[in-house]
Amino acid sequence: MIKLPTPIRPLLALAAMAAVALGASACGTTTADVENGRILFIERCGTCHTLAEAGTTATVGPNLDDAFGAAREAGEGGETIEGVVEAQVEFPRPSTEDPAISMPADVVEGQELEDVAAYVGKWAGVPGAAPPKVPGGPGAQVFANNGCGGCHTLAAAKSGGTVGPDLDEVLSGQSAAMIHEDIVDPNKVIAQGYPPSVMPLNFEETLSPEELEDLVEYLVESTGGKGAALQGGKAGGAKSKGG
Ligand code: HEC
Ligand code: HEC
User: Fold this and answer.
1) Residue pLDDT, tens place only, 118-129
2) Among all ligands shown, which has an atom nearest to the Cα of 189?
């Protein structure tokens, strides 16, 4: 336990009280971290669920914008949706149509569950929701929209995901063609030490050819891969992995 110097403790108590007051007058829970909820959602839920604001497009489970669109339209607030999400994650209903495809229980728990529920409560079914705009050009936007940063560290995107390999480390020296293949066919070569089938397998379907091209170009440029070295006219590629 960290011992705080005494003068700080009353300040923290005040801050907590202020947060409660704010929470009551604004909306939703007081302790939930919606930003963290977004990252968790992409990582743990986005592999099965579509949600526009998260940029996730998986179709194993129901589309959550559709699932909560009607409630939102009927004027239900985020808190109601939050409650439904918490209940579903704690006690998933058995899926009726295909029992083989059902939602695992307790994908997230405790504070993480509160964060995810608050995030979904804020955004599910909100008309026109889309991932926030990011700097860095079209490829950077594709990276952000598709939740790559939730699972991967990439300095250029300021992302710190650790579910998959650190792209700054593994992509330097890889050609554009190799990176393209990594994205559209992740199970063809499984990165050492990582599980297969965690990275979504459908990017070739969910991304347009143009988006894919922008994404690969962005990754090549931001990790100093071979493509960038060639484009920049530099003679790099000494640690070529072959093709
Ligand atoms: C392995 C795939 C999988 C993962 C991971 C997953 N879900 Fe699900 N989810 C499903 C399936 C399948 C259903 C529909 C069947 C059911 O109700 O169990 C579902 C249903 C739901 C529903 C109910 C939607 C409705 O129509 O009422 C919510 C809400 C939900 N999931 C939220 C989440 C959240 C939040 C996470 C992450 C913490 C998550 N799910 C992770 C597969 C998944
Ligand atoms: C849900 C987590 C998840 C998401 C989302 C995800 N990935 Fe991955 N990714 C992984 C995992 C785990 C691996 C390692 C296993 C493998 O090779 O398939 C991986 C592997 C990779 C590799 C190969 C790395 C190497 O060692 O050569 C690349 C490149 C990559 N991902 C890029 C992306 C891009 C770009 C996106 C977004 C369009 C993305 N990933 C989205 C989890 C994810």
Assistant:
1) 999 999 999 999
2) 2
